C-alpha cells in the first residue's frame, strides 16, 4: 500500500484565497461577495480561524457576560418580592448554573458541530447555500450558535441606541447580514472560549414572549432554576427559540406543536449521544402539559396588588434621584436593565393592615366618593413603612372610567406620583407649640386672645401683612377663651390661641420651625421659608401637604426630635453584587429632646382630659396615646398619631379631585350619616384602628414612659397680651388626667388652603377647625 495521504496543511495559496475572500467581501459586499464565502472557499475551520483579520464593530459590546437583566424589588425583609422590572425579562447566570442537559439540548437543536467549528459551521453553510441558491429549495439558515449570539447582541445594541437603521441591518434577510455575522463570529471565537460563547447564547436567546435566557425560562415554565432542568424540561425550552410565539408551551393552542418540537429536540439529543434510548423513550411519552408548573411574573407595579402604591412610590424615587443616574432616561434604563436587587423599606404587615384599614373606613365603591389617604413611617430612620388608600391601583386607561381605581397615590407629593396636597387644619398645631418653646416661652404662659387680628400683627422679614384683619373663632362659631395657655390651646384645639401665639412669634418663626421639622409643599416641594408664601391662617393648617410629609413630622414627635427625610429604599445591589449609593434620610437632631417630651405630654393630655380634642386616638390595653386631629372646613379632615420610637402615621379624608364640589358634610360615609364630619369622627379612628391591629401583629410592648414634661417649658409663666405685652395676673393650671371622653369640641376659623389638584384660596374662606 502506498503512504497514507497527509493531512492538508495551511498553504500560502489557501491563505491568499481566504484573504482575497475577505477583501472582496469588504469591497464588493452583497451577493457577489457572498459567493466567495461559501465553504469551498473558506476551507478548513482552523484555517478560517487563523487567517480572518481582526474585525471591530464600533459601539458594540460583545462581552458575553454583560447583558441587560431584570431588576427585582423586595420588601424590607429582603425576600418578599414586590415587583420586577425589565425591557427584556432576563436573569443572567454562569454556565456552571445551567444544567448539562440544557446545554446539550440547545447545542443539539441549534448547532450540533458547535464544539468543533471556529465560529462558522462550514458544513451547515454549504448545506444552506446549496439548498437555497443552487437547488432553489426552501431558504436555509446554517447559522452557528456563535452567529446567533452575534445577531442578538447587534440587535440588542441597536434597540438600546434607538437606532432604527441598525435594527434593520441586524435583522434584514440578506446574505450581507449573514456574512457580517460570520466574520464577527470568527473573531468572537478567537477571543472567547466555547463555554463563554455558549453561556452568552443561553443568557441572551429568547425563550418565549419577552422571556430571555434559560434561567428566566426555567422559572417561568417549570418553577425551577436552570441548574435543575431535567432532560424533558431542557428539550422543551430548547425547542422554543425557533419560534418563541408559536412554541410557547403555556399557550394552550400551542401545546401540541410545542410537544412535537420538544420531541424533535429529544431525537437530536439521542442522535448526538447526549441521552440514552431509554431516556428518549420515557421523555417522548411524557405529555408536555404534565411537566409544566408555571410561575407568574409581575412586571412593574400594575399587577402587584396592595404593594402597587408603594411600588409606584419607589419607582418615582428612583426616577427622581441623582444617585441612580444623571438623567431620568439613565435611571429608567438602570431600573429596566441593570439587574438590580432593590430592598425597600416596605413593612409587609404595616402595608396590608393599612390598606385594609383604609378600605374598611371608606369602601372603594362608597357612594360618598370620598377618599382616604394614609402613610406610616418609622421614627428616627425616615423609612416609609406603608400606605393606605381606599382605591385599587390601576395605571391603565380603564381606570379613567372606574372611580374605585387610580394610579395616583394621594398620600405622597406630586413629584412622587401623588396629588398637590391636602389642607390639614388643626393637625398643624403641634408645630406652633414647638415654635413657642423654641422661642423660650412656657406652654403655661397665658395669652390674651381675640377673634380678630390685624394681619400686620404677624409681620416679619418675609411677610408684611396688610390693611385687612384675620377673623378667627373656635368651635361651631364660639368666640374665644380669654385668657388661655398654649397648653390648653392645643389640648382643646382652639384657634384663637394659635392666632395669639402667631402674633407674638411672627410667621417667620413658625415657618422656620415647620421647615426644620421637614414640612414642604406637596405640589412644589418648596418650604414656606423659601417660597415666602405666608398667611396668618397657616397657624391653623391652611397649607398644601401630603400625608407622608405629615407622618414624617409626627415621627419627629415620636423620636425625641430626630428629623429624617422620608426614604423608601434601604439597599440597592447591581448585577455584579456591588452596592449602589441610595438617597439618604439625613437623620439629625432637629428639635431639643426636652421640647419634644413636653409636646408629647401635651398631645397625650389631649387624649385623656375631659376637654381634650384627641380622645379618638386612645389605644387599647391602657397604652399611652398621642395625637392631633384637624378639620379644614368641609374640604378635608385629618389626624396624626404615633407610638414612640416605633411608628408614626397620618390620615386625610376628603375628595382629592373635587374638594369644593364634593364636600365632606351632610353626607353618609360607609353607611353612617353626619351633618358635620371632623378629624375625630373618621380620620383619627382610622389611624387608631390601624395602630391597634398593627400592635397586635407586631406584638409591640407597652412603654408608657414617653412624654414627660420638662419644667423649663411648663413653669407657670407670663400673661401676654396682644403683641406680646406682659401683664401680671393670676395664672391658670394645666393639671388633669381624667380618662373620661371629651365632648366633640370643635372650632371654627378662617382657612385658605385647598386640596390636591386645587390651588390655594384667599383669606375669605371660613373653616370649621377642631378635632
UniProtKB/TrEMBL annotation:
Keyword list, A-Z: Carboxypeptidase, Cell shape, Cell wall biogenesis/degradation, Glycosyltransferase, Hydrolase, Multifunctional enzyme, Peptidoglycan synthesis, Protease, Transferase
Q: For this UniProt entry, what's an example GO CC term?
A: outer membrane-bounded periplasmic space
A molecular function GO annotation: peptidoglycan glycosyltransferase activity
E.C. numbers:
2.4.-.-
Q: Which GO terms describe its biological process?
A: cell wall organization; peptidoglycan biosynthetic process; proteolysis; regulation of cell shape
Domain of life from the UniProt record: Bacteria
Where in the sequence does UniProt note compositional bias of the Low complexity kind? 731-771
**Catalytic activity, as annotated:** [GlcNAc-(1->4)-Mur2Ac(oyl-L-Ala-gamma-D-Glu-L-Lys-D-Ala-D-Ala)](n)-di-trans,octa-cis-undecaprenyl diphosphate + beta-D-GlcNAc-(1->4)-Mur2Ac(oyl-L-Ala-gamma-D-Glu-L-Lys-D-Ala-D-Ala)-di-trans,octa-cis-undecaprenyl diphosphate = [GlcNAc-(1->4)-Mur2Ac(oyl-L-Ala-gamma-D-Glu-L-Lys-D-Ala-D-Ala)](n+1)-di-trans,octa-cis-undecaprenyl diphosphate + di-trans,octa-cis-undecaprenyl diphosphate + H(+); Preferential cleavage: (Ac)2-L-Lys-D-Ala-|-D-Ala. Also transpeptidation of peptidyl-alanyl moieties that are N-acyl substituents of D-alanine
Entries under SUPFAM superfamilies matching the protein: beta-lactamase/transpeptidase-like, Lysozyme-like
Q: Which Gene3D superfamilies match?
A: Biosynthetic peptidoglycan transglycosylase-like (1.10.3810.10), DD-peptidase/beta-lactamase superfamily (3.40.710.10)
State the family named in the UniProt similarity comment for this chain. In the C-terminal section; belongs to the transpeptidase family. In the N-terminal section; belongs to the glycosyltransferase 51 family.
This chain belongs to the protein called: Penicillin-binding protein
- Organism, as annotated: Bifidobacterium longum
